[in-house]
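Changelog note: in this version the structure field was regenerated for every chain. One regenerated record is shown below for reference.
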Amino acid sequence: MDRRTAPRTLNLPFLWLLLAVGMALPCSGQVPRLRLTESMRAAQGVSAQLGLDKVQSQAILEAALPWDACLAHWNDILDSLEAAPMSESELLQALGPVRTALGECRASRSKGIRAALDSSARVAFDALASPERPRVLHFGVHNRLDCNVCKTPQPPTP
């Protein structure tokens, strides 16, 4: 039993290759998460609520994404105004036009999404985008016994 055993040596080029591959591949904690923008979330919400197929979902996403630049611009202005050293009355006066512009960006995004939909989905989108207004605006502290809205209709007594 005279076997000659060769001493085992490390294959250094192979180890260097493994080390390089291990460093090149990100670990799960190093993978940056995709941050969804407001328009991406809006497009996903519309797509999910209307039950759209992938082609229409992609179309409304493409229609919504350009409005992220508008929203980001006005949100940056909003943040800078809120951080500025000014009185509350000046701040409220300065925020009004910015909030109006944000609303216009969102309205334009909704118009773009609506234009990207086919005719059958537009009807459902319109119902989704503009829900029916309440018939009576009713809130606040009041006497519920004397309130005509709070009273449940009583059947007429004979």
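Spot check on this record: The first helix runs from residue 12 to 24. The chain has a mean pLDDT of 77.
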